[in-house]
Amino acid sequence: MDRYERELRRSLRWYPKHYRERHGDEIVETALELRDLDELTVSKAERRGLMWAGLATRARERPPFLNWLAYRFFNIRVPHRHRMWARDDLMSRYYPVRTIMASLAFYLVLVLPLYLLSSPETGFWAMLAAPLGGALGGVLTNGGMIALAGGLVVLMGAASIPYQRRRMLTKHDFHRDGRPVHWTTYRDPSGRVWAVRA
Amino acid sequence: MALREQSYLVLLALTEGPRHGYAIITTVRDLSEGRVRIGAGTLYGALDRLAGEELVAVEREEVVNGRNRRYYRLTDNGHRVLSEETERLARMAETARARLLMPRPQLGMGFA
């Protein structure tokens, strides 16, 4: 692989991972055929074209906002045409970081306001915080309680990551290593149709 | 369906049979008399969009020099859309030509 091809492959990183796996060689092959004989480095125009095309592909492959919200916060499956985006997200080394950030965001945006806005005597506060504060012998201040609850949310989120990842891969019809699941059907002698996962 | 110029030229490049990426780019360049030069990234973005609208499809794959090469073809739907767009452009060109041939209004004609 010469310098020109290395630069091309570096430019491919603008594309989503599954797209690179499927079309990357084809794009590089075409760009190499277009290369002028005296060109030692990839032209700015070609690099720019690859960048914009890669970003446009990422935008196209990403699920709509509400689907993304449901996937990130409630582990709801994305529409089938976006499942490769989900696979890339689940297999990414940054999936744990994104999951923890989502748990923290959920806590800060939904749980914490309920806690802060409810009255100490009634509602959410009385239901949760007062008994816990009492059980801890009044050691923690309100700020401490909030930080403790936030820390527990992060820890629980982190602990559930391996299980969540496996579950979400299965939901999107992938094996644990990210390979797509293939279904084959057959009819048994009684006429019943069976679907077999492979 | 209105097409962008790049998309139109890519579809036109496929009218004579399936082509792979490099052949599509050089055909587009020839059809546009050297004016439209698209790179590999732009081409595959256009092919993805056109495939999403079912105007093009993958005809076959070959392994050349150890690399996968795909040939793309025009679908029936793509052929129909291309024909309609060509007719629309032809009508517009005809209208434009007729207007350009009309005598231009001279200044001062209203002051006899």
From TrEMBL, chain A:
The chain crosses the membrane at residues 95-116, 136-161. It comes from Nocardiopsis ansamitocini. Keywords: Membrane, Transmembrane, Transmembrane helix. It comes from the Bacteria. This is Uncharacterized protein.
Automatic annotation (TrEMBL), chain B:
It comes from Nocardiopsis ansamitocini. Residues 10-83 form the Transcription regulator PadR N-terminal domain. This is PadR family transcriptional regulator. InterPro entries: Metal_resp_DNA-bind_regulator, Tscrpt_reg_PadR_N, WH-like_DNA-bd_sf, WH_DNA-bd_sf. It comes from the Bacteria. It holds the Pfam family PadR.
